[in-house]
C-alpha cells in the first residue's frame, strides 16, 4: 500500500493458471488501448507478484486493470524476467503511439486518496451495522475494486468523503 500510495492507476499482472479473477484480464497487446483511456500524466504502477504464487486477492482488488500473458495450459506461468519483458515492450508502444485524445481526459487520484476514503468508509459501515459477518472483508475488497476500476476523480472522492463525514455526524448527534 505504501509503495502504491502516489499512483493513480494500478495494473496487476496475473498468470493463466485456473483461478477466479475480480475482473476480466486484458492481454499485454490490449494494454495500450486500455491505457489510452487515461490522461497521459496519470502515475501508473505495474505490479508483479511472486513467481510461485502471484498476487493475492487483496492485492488484485487494488488494481483497476489486470493483465495476463497468454501461455500454454501445461505451463501457465512465465518467470518474472519474461513477464517484465512483455509488459515493458507494450508500455513502450503506448508511449510511441500516444495520441492527443489522452490529454483531454481527467486524471485519476493517487491511491493514498482512495486509501483515505476507505479509512473513513470502513468504520462508518461497521458503525451502521453493515459489517454483520465475516463477508465484510470481501465486500470492502469488492468496493475497492470498483474504485480502482472506475478511476475516480479528486472531486468524486471529495463528494464521497463528504457523505461519510455527514453520515458520521448524524450518527453522533443521534
Question: How would you describe this protein?
Answer:
It is a single chain. It contains six helices and three strands, in the order E-H-E-H-E-H-H-H-H. The protein has 174 residues and is mainly alpha-helical. Helix 4 packs parallel to helix 6. The radius of gyration is 18 Å and the shape is globular. It has a three-stranded parallel sheet, with no helix packed on it. The longest helix has 20 residues.
Give the topology.
Blueprint (H helix, E strand, L loop, with lengths): L8 E6 L16 H5 L8 E4 L9 H5 L3 E4 L11 H17 L14 H17 L8 H15 L3 H20 L1
Parallel strand pairs: 1-2, 1-3
- Biggest sheet, spatial arrangement of strands: 2-1-3
The biggest beta sheet, please?
Answer: 3 strands, parallel
Shape: globular
Q: What proportion of the residues is helical, as a percent range? A: 40-55%
Q: What is the H-and-E element order?
A: EHEHEHHHH
Kindly, what is the distance between the CA atoms of the first and last residues, rounded to a whole number of angstroms?
Answer: 35 Å
Subunit organisation of the chains = single chain
In DSSP terms (H or I, runs of 4 or more residues), the helix count works out at: 6
Low-confidence stretches: none
Would you report the number of β strands?
3
Q: Mean pLDDT, nearest integer?
A: 82
**What would you report as the Rg, rounded to the nearest angstrom?**
18 Å
Strand content: 5-15%
User: By helix and strand content, what is the structural category?
Assistant: mainly alpha
Structural descriptors:
single chain; 174 residues; mainly alpha; three-stranded parallel beta sheet; 6 helices; 3 strands; 45% helix; 8% strand
